[in-house]
Amino acid sequence: MTEPRSHTLEVPGATLAYDVREAQGVGAPILLMIGSPMDASGFTTLAGHFADRTVVTYDPRGVSRSKRTDGLAESTPDLHADDLHRLIDAIGGGPVDVFASSGGAVNALALVARHPGQVRTLVAHEPPVARVLPDAERAMAVIRDMRETYEREGFGPAMAKFIATTSHTGEFPADPKELPVQDPAMMGLPTQDDGSRDDPLLGQNLITCTHYEPEFEALRGASTRVVIAVGVESEGQMARRGGEGVAERLETEPVIFPSNHGGFMGDEFGMPGQPEAFAAALRQVLDA
Where does the record place the AB hydrolase-1 domain (predicted)? Predict the structure, then answer.
């Protein structure tokens, strides 16, 4: 695999930055790796395990190098899906294979519902779709409380609630205030409100991503092979439960992958998973 070459793509309301790691020779379809709001840097280790394929990564609009010009407060999965549609056109039109994790998996489900001909296989890893949970109303109430905390108190207190929410096992309490949340200062999070409200996670994608309802009828009828993946260590957590709920609605069984929600990562953010084993599992699914 060559060193990544960076490019930009003008789309309505944003300039997207993306990276292409060219494989030597001609082989399998391009492998597009996407997250949200995680940018391309989170896939560096995983991409290195697919040197035999051309791998494309990108920064979603409003994240890192991808600058927004739309003036909107939030980005929806449908908006991200349109960006991905245009990105796939820019790299050859597809069909590509897609590995999508977390919010990226939600955006990829929206993409396949609208443009199935562009995607051969989608591996959607732990989409945090609250609407498919048995305790959907409780989950969405916890998430709304997190967003309200962000608007009222800023990043640190809201991020403490985000960590509590994503690590919580089982159904959520009826009252969001019953969710155990650590002191932000004890977690190394800022306690002073800097006044900004443009965080890509808490300000732009939190509600629109987790409250999104995939177009299940379109997905079930799509030409794309859709595989839902969940982490073996994530049992009971919201993102895995979301993946399980999506798989059930698609009338499929989720595939169990190694590690946790970030199991494909190396030391990009100081919380390494099991990228070698994860890559092997992903390759097995893509080659099936």
Answer: 30-191
Helix (H, G, I), strand (E, B) or coil at 160: helix
User: How high is the pLDDT of residue 146?
Assistant: 97
Q: Which CATH superfamily is domain 5-129+212-287 in?
A: Alpha/Beta hydrolase fold, catalytic domain (3.40.50.1820)
Domain edges within the chain = 5-129+212-287, 136-206
Give the rounded percent of residues in the chain with a pLDDT score beyond 70. Answer: 99
> In this structure, are residues 260 and 98 in contact, taking their beta carbons and an 8 Å threshold?
no
Give the whole-angstrom CA distance, residue 232 versus residue 260: 6
The predicted pLDDT at position 221 comes to 97
Q: Count CB neighbours of 153 within 10 A.
A: 15
Q: At what angle do helices 103-114 and 77-90 cross, to 10 degrees?
A: 70
Q: Do 37 and 167 meet the contact criterion of CB atoms below 8 Å apart?
A: no
